[in-house]
Amino acid sequence: MASSFFSDFGLMWYLEELNKKEFKKFKERFKQETLKLGLKQISWTEVKKSSRQELANLLIQHYEAQQAWGLTLRIFHSMARQDLCDKVQRERAEHKKIYRAYVKNKFSSLCTSKFITDFFECFGEKVRPEELEYLHLLFAAKENGQPSHTTVLQGAEGIGKTTLLMKLLLGWAEGSLYEDRFLYAFYFCCRELRQLKETSLADLMSGNWPYPSPAPIAEIVSHPEKLLFIIDSFEQLKCDLSEPESDLCSDWMKQQPVRVLLSGLLRKKMLPEASLLIAVTPMCPAELQARLVCPELITLSGFSEEEIEFYFRRLFPSRSRAAEAFRFLRENAQVYSLCHTPRVCWVIGTCMKQVMEKGRSLAPICRRLTSLYASFILNLFTGEDASCPSPESQVQLRGLCSLAVEGMWTDEFEFNDEALRRNGIADSDVPALLDTNIFLKCTESSYTFAHTSIQEFCAAMFYLLRRDHPNPAVRCRETLLATHLKKVKKAHWTYWVRFLFGFLKEKEQEEVDTFFGFQPSQEIRQEFHQILKNLGEHEGLPGQTDFLALFYCLFELEDTTFVREAVNFLQEINFSINNDLDLVVCAYCLEYCSGLRRLSFSVPKVIEEDGQGCASGPSVTHWHHIFSVFTTNEHLKELEITDTDFCQSVLVILCNQLRHPTCHLEKLQLNRVSLSGGSSVFFEALSQSPDLRYLNLHNVNLSRDDMEKFCKVLSLSMCNIEELTLSGCFLRNPCWDLLHEALLTKKSLCSLDLSASNLHDKGLNVLSVALRHPDCCLRSLGLANCSFTAVGCGDLATVLTSNRKLTSLQIGLNKVGDMGAKVLCEALARPSCHLEILGFKDCGLTSACCRDLYSALTHSRTLRVLDLTLNTLDYSGVAVLCEALKYPECPLWVLGLPKTRFDEKTEMLLMAVEESNPHLTIIGFW
User: Fold this and answer.
1) Average pLDDT for 415-421
2) Which residues pair with 226 in a beta bridge?
3) What is the pLDDT of residues 907-919, one digit of tens each?
4) Is 178 a domain residue?
5) Which domain holds residue 135?
6) How many whole angstroms separate alpha carbon 20 and alpha carbon 16?
C-alpha cells in the first residue's frame, strides 16, 4: 500500500540527499527507532547491506505509508537534518495550497452554472453567515465532548443538499470553515460513481486532483484524521452497505467494485480515522444508519419563510408585486409548503411572475399545484412572443412526457442519449430542452429533470396524450391509480397521481387542448370513479390503502361532486396527519364523508397552539370538519386515535361531537394519546355517551385525580361501558381503591385490562377485595406485566374460587414462578373455579410446576385455553402435561406451547398427543 507514497513523495530523493556517513547513521537510527516505536522489525543484515534504493524498497514492503514517513522524519530530525524536514512541510503546504485553489475554482463554477439554475444567484455563491453557522454544526462535538466523525445529512430531493455541500467545500477552500480540522476534503457524487465498475480510493482522489500534477496520495492518507470525504446522493447507488465484513478491504490502493469500496470506507474498514459526510434522501435504506459507526443525523429542512420572501423580493422588480405574490403564496398551504424546497420555489415563483406579467389573476393559478405547473411548463414551450406553440415545441414536450413516464415506472431519474432517442427526443431537441432549465445535464452523457415534481407532472401529462409507450414497463392509468393508493408503494410517487387528478378539472383540460390541439379523454374521470367505488366495496382493501394519498388526489381535483361520490363509498378510513397541510387535506375530504363505519387516525405533534392551550383559528375549523363525521355518519361505530397530543381546544371539539345526540359511537380506542389537562371534559363526554360499549385507554397517562373522575363516570347509570382497557396508564397503588366502587356498581362492566400497570403484590391485594365481592360482574381480567409475584397469586387464587363469573385471566410477564403457579393450580382444581382461559406467558415457569398443572387439567371441568409460551419446560415436564392431555375428562381445547422450540423427542411427543385428541390444538405463538 505504501508504493504510491514513496514514488509520489520522493523518498528516494531524500535518501540521496544523505552522504555516505549520514546514510550509515540513518540505518543505525532506523534500528533504534523501530525498536522504540514497537514497529515490525526488518532483518538488520538486510538493512545494513542495503543501498538507498533497496532500503526504500524494504520500507515499501514492511510498513504502512503513515508509519514509514513518520519514521523517516523522526530519523531526519534526530540527525539534525531539519532542512529535509522543512522541505517536507513546504511541499505539503504547497500541495494543500494547489488543491484548495482547485476546489475553489471548480465549485465556484458549479455554483454559478446552469446545473443549479439562475435561482441560486439570489443567494450568492459565497457562504453566508447563517449557512456558515449551520455548516459548523455538521461536525460539532457531541454530548461526550468528542467531535462527530460520521454525519448523515438527510433531506428531500431538491431541498439544497448538494448546494450546501458545495458551499462547505468553498468555505473550506477559502479558509473560513474547518481550516484546522481538515487538510484535505474530497467530494464524490454517487451519480458519477455508479458509472464505474471498479476503482480504488486512491484513483478517486487522484481524479479530484488538479491535472497535470500527480496527486500525492500517500502524503494525503498519512494523516487520515485530517481527511473529509463527502459522499453526495448516496441513494443513487441503491446500496445498503450490506456486504459481509470479510468482503471489505482496508487497502486504499486496491481496485474494487464501487459498492464494496464505499462500504469499506463508510463502515470504517478503510481509513477509520477519516471524517465522513453522507448526503441522502429520506427514501435511502434505513439500514444505512444502522451500519455506520456512531452516525450523527442532521435533517436539512430547506428554505425558511424569510428566505422564500427574500427570493420573491429579488424575483419581482416591483415591491408591490412581490408583496402581492407572496401574500397569495402564504394563503395557500399546499403551494407554500412546497416552497421550502428551493427548486420548487423557483418553479412556483417563476410561474407567478409569468402570470402577473401577462396581466392575469393569480387566484385561479395558485389554488392548486396542477394549475401552477401547467401554466409554468406550457408557457415555457409556447415562448414569450408566440400565441401558440410551434410543432417542434409540441414534439419536444411529448418526448419529455414519454421520457418522464418511463422513468417513473422504472425508477430512473437520469437518462442517457439512448433513452432520449427511444422516447422521441432527437439530438437536435436537446439544446432547446436545456434552455428551459427544467431539463438539466447531469454528466457528459446523462440528463435529468430539475426536480422530481417536474418529472411527475410530465409523466401525468403523458396519460392525457393518448399514446402507447415503447417500454412495456409503463402501465395503464388503472394500474397507476391502484398502485398509488397502496400503503406499500414507490417512495418517490408523491405528486404524480395528484397531477393526474388535477388534470380532470375543466380548466386544466382546456390548457392542454390549447397547447396540443385536442381535448383530453373524458374516460379518465369515469375510470377513476369506478376504481374508487371498488375500493369502498371490497372489505380487504381499506387495510391496504393509503387514504392520505387518496385525500391529496381528491383535494387536488377540488370537485365537490366527484369528492362526495368518491368518499361516500368508504366505510373504513385510517390515516396519519404529519403536518398542517395533511390536516387541511383530511378535513376537506372528511367533510364529505357520510358512509363511514370506522375511523382511525394519528396526529403526532402538529397541533398548533396559541400559548394558552388553544389551537390556532384555521386549525380549529379543520378539526371541526374532521370530528363532524360523528354527527354526519349515522353508522360510524368505531374511533381509534393513536400517537396524538391534544391541545385543550381540539379536545373540546372532539368531546362536543362525542356527546352529540346523533353520535352513536360504540367503540373508542385512545393509544398513546395525551389529554393535556382536558381529562375532565373528556370524562364528562363519556358520561353522555350511552352507546359506548368498549373503551381502550392504552398508554394514556392518568393521574389519581383523573382516575377519581373516571371512576365516578363509570358508576353513572348513563355510562354503559362493557369492556375497559387501562393498560400502560402508569396507574400506581393509590389508584386501586378507586376502582373498587366501579367494579361493584357497574353491572355492565364485564372485561377489564390493567396490563403494564404498577400493580405489585400490594395493589393486587387491594384490587382482589373488589374482585371477590359477589356484586363484581367481571368475566375477563388482564393483569399481564403488572409486577406481582407468587405472593400476589395467593390473592388471585381466592378470587378464582369465590368469583364464579370470572372466566378469563391473563397474568403473563409476571414473576409468579412455580410457587405462584402451584397456588393458582390448586384453585383451578376446585369445583368453585369456573375459569376457561388462563395466560401464563413468560412467567418463569419450569418443569417443576407441571405436576400442579397436571392436577389442574385433570380436575378442572371448565379450562379451555392455557398459554404456557416462553416458559422453560423440558421433556420431563412436557411428558407430565401430555399425560394430563390424554386424560378423558381433560377439558382443554387450546394449549400455547411452541413444539418447534423443543428437541425432536419432545416435539414428537406433543405431535402425538395433538393427533390423538381431535379437540386439542397446540399453537406455538400467542
Assistant:
1) 94
2) none
3) 999 999 999 988 9
4) yes
5) 96-299
6) 9
